[in-house]
Amino acid sequence: MRLCGENIRKLRRENDLTQEYMAYEMGISQKAYSDIENSKVKVNLDTLTKVSNILKVSPSDICSISHQCSIGTYKEKFDDLVDYLRSNGISIPDSLK
Question: Least buried of 19, 30, 59, 63, by fewest C-beta within 10 Å?
């Protein structure tokens, strides 16, 4: 998911924000944040949600899997994800509701 890190960097710069600011808002070190932008770590749903909230964009504006799925399959996968989150007592981010 190299593209996710690149998109995060691009959006951060467009908003004239520093890595330090992003890291502070996320409650992580600047080095940990840098690793996200440089795709040294996988971007999980929690991280994606935090970044998208700070940048005031939808998670799908940062990382999209839609190019890998047909629309029907994408909807099924989305529904499966929401069902999984609910069945495991994981809160669903507002951006996915």
Answer: 30
